[in-house]
Structures are given as structure tokens and as C-alpha cells.
């Protein structure tokens, strides 16, 4: 037999060296080279043939029921998961500290327990007493929810084998460690080894496993990049500390669509799903005011109604100021330049303030037209009726481009009670009860804006319409 030889492997790029080095020669990362188990030289006489563990069968012989979903009891989470969790699957839920991950998963465990499915909650960061206090506060206490405060991997696996739950929640994977693996707790090597072992245990026992993951300051999932490849589902939990709205966004899903979004509201009594979040992003006022425009954006497959607010002010000195919240700063600057160049609206000399309502983030280019209309409305001091929505992408040539999912957006606008929609030319079929105004350019869109304002004129509308029409000619 050949004597085993020692090898050292990088945990990031898997580069193998014969001796230990502090910096990996392959990816130039420090502190990622670790010793691996000794291997024997494989020669012609050392090869052994092994029988496959399972026989290959035609795909039509595989029972589809093996990968069926069962609901978690939280409708908005089931929407993102594609119907629920799958036995033997591994789900990774990542989010900022304090966003509400533990509160949401405790409610998931409680809902599963009420449905007759035993749940096991493993906490590596909090004591069992702290989890119990949260359960009492949120009304999620149930005898079929088992709690364990563990940080050792072998103890977690033993709990799964002895309790035999149908759902296991590990909070968090960075807090669990194995004594058989070198490296610090939460390090790259430990996280990969823990995730691999828990995944194998979940698939062997046929239980659904949900792992809580930390995120870096840039919003990426902490740990090795391979962590996202090891699991079946990756979810991001997003939210602002100053706003009760929370969103669970699907990033990867082997059992369903990966572009779904679930909305929740976090409060002192727990967390609840929001089936109709569009109303949270609209400002409630008696009469329309200048500088506002409403759009319908698509977040994944979900249409959401949002409001854009704009304010133009005289600069106090020096260069004009640009302050943007909830909208991409580069796109806001581009739309301002398009209005200045093609619509001849003198906006660049003023301080420009742009914001969304309710902490909404408009990342879809379909909100460009709403931003342009809000800026034009603020420039002319002309109020846009709250019964109109603006949907379309603005090009650098001043043209309006079509966007995807227009029929779904218009249907949502009708459902929310809007009566007028300003959209690019050549797209969208008017649903019943909705007046469609089509424009090929931003100048044509401003002309339609004048028509809308004339139907909803105010005492100061004539002067405002004349100011906007001077630039739209």
C-alpha cells in the first residue's frame, strides 16, 4: 500500500498544495489553506470498482409525490416558497440583524405545530428562556414546538434523530460548530462543514430544514459562496428599522419560481402577512398636490402601486443639490437631464428632492415615467390627479419604451380604483373601466399630462398649464 501523503486545500478556490502557506497561491486569500485528510496515490492496481448505491431508472418511474410541498401556515412565506416546504429540503433565510428573522420562523414553527407537525427550533444565539419569552409575547407557544439551545453540530444531529420532527429551524448556521473541523466558529471552513452535515441529516431523516444566515455590511450572505449552492432555497429578508414593512425575496428555489416576494408587517405582537401591500406605499390625502405621481411596479411577479414625490427648490448657494430616497440616483439624474434637454424644462438649476412613500424602493425602470411626471408637476406647480398612474421607461433620446407585464400592472391599477393610465405607445390592452393614454415620447406624455390637468383644473391651473406647455411645445 502507498503511504498516505498530507495535502493542504484552500477553502475558497480549492487549490491544493503540498505544504501549508498563509496565502493561497490560487486566489491570493489569506488564512483559507487548511490540512485535508491524507490520500493515497491511485495507481492501476489501487483502483477499486464500487457498485452504485442506487440503480438508474426511467424518469417516468419516479414518484412526483416525493417532492411535494406542505404549507407552513404562513401564506406570504408559502407564496415565496412555491406552496410550502418540501421534506428533505434545506432553506437558507438571510437578513440584517433585528429585521425579524427569528420572529418569523418562530411563527412558522408554531403554525406547523398547530397543523399536527412537530417542529424543532435550535437556537445557537439565544437561550431557550429567551425564545420562550418571545413565544409568549407573540402567542406562538405550543407543546409540539421543541426548543434547544445548542452550538455543537453533533448535539443538533442527535436532537433531530431523537425528537424526529418534520420541521427543523437552526438559528443560526454561523453559530453552530463542529469539533472535528478546524477553524473559528462562523468561519468559512466551519460554516461549510456544518451546512454539509445538516443537509445530509435533513435528507436522510426526510425533514424540512430552515437555516438562518447572517449577512455582511454589503448585504451579501456571510460565509463561503458555496453555501448558496449547498441549499435548495435561498431567501432574503429585507426591511427598514424605521418602517414596519418587511419583505421576503426569493433568490433561488429548486421547487418553484425564484422571483416571488412576500410582504409582512412587524409589530410589537409579532409579525403578520400583508396580502395587499399596495396601500402601504400610497400617501392618503384629500386633494392632489403638485410634485406627486403614482406608478405600478413589478417586484418579482407581484404588482405594487407606489407613489413618487418630487420637490424643486431654489439653491441657497453653490451647486444645486440632489437628494434621492428609494430611487436609483443615476436614473433620477438621467431623467432630469432628459427633461432638461428634450422637454426644455429648466430643472437642472434647482435643488431636486425625490422620494418614495412608505420606504418603497423603485428598482424597476417602469417607474421612470412617474419620476418624470412628478418632476414636471413640481416644476409647473401642477397637481396630477390621484386617479391616474404613469408606467413606462424613459430613454436618453426622450422616447418612452415598453415594459414587461403591462397587462398585469393595468389590472392592478383597475383593482385599486384608478381610472386613467399613461403608458408608452404600442403596448397594453385597456381593461374595462380604465382610460388609456399612449405616448411615444416624453414631450407627448407631457401633452397628455396637460389634458389630464384640464379635466381636473384648479384655480391656479391656468398659469401652471401655461408654464408646462411652454416647455412641451
TrEMBL record:
SUPFAM superfamilies: P-loop containing nucleoside triphosphate hydrolases, Ribosomal protein S5 domain 2-like. Pfam families: AAA_25, ChlI, Zn_ribbon_LapB. SMART domains: AAA. Keywords: ATP-binding, DNA damage, DNA repair, DNA-binding, Hydrolase, Metal-binding, Nucleotide-binding, Stress response, Zinc, Zinc-finger. Signal peptide: none annotated. One of its GO terms (cellular component) is cytosol. Gene3D superfamilies: 3.30.230.10, P-loop containing nucleotide triphosphate hydrolases. GO terms for molecular function: ATP binding; ATP-dependent DNA damage sensor activity; damaged DNA binding; hydrolase activity; zinc ion binding. The keyword Ion transport does not apply. ATP binds at residues 95-102. Residues 351-473 are annotated as: Lon-protease-like. Belongs to the RecA family. RadA subfamily. The middle region has homology to RecA with ATPase motifs including the RadA KNRFG motif, while the C-terminus is homologous to Lon protease. HAMAP family: RadA_bact. This is DNA repair protein RadA. The lineage of its organism: Bacteria, Bacillati, Actinomycetota, Actinomycetes, Mycobacteriales.
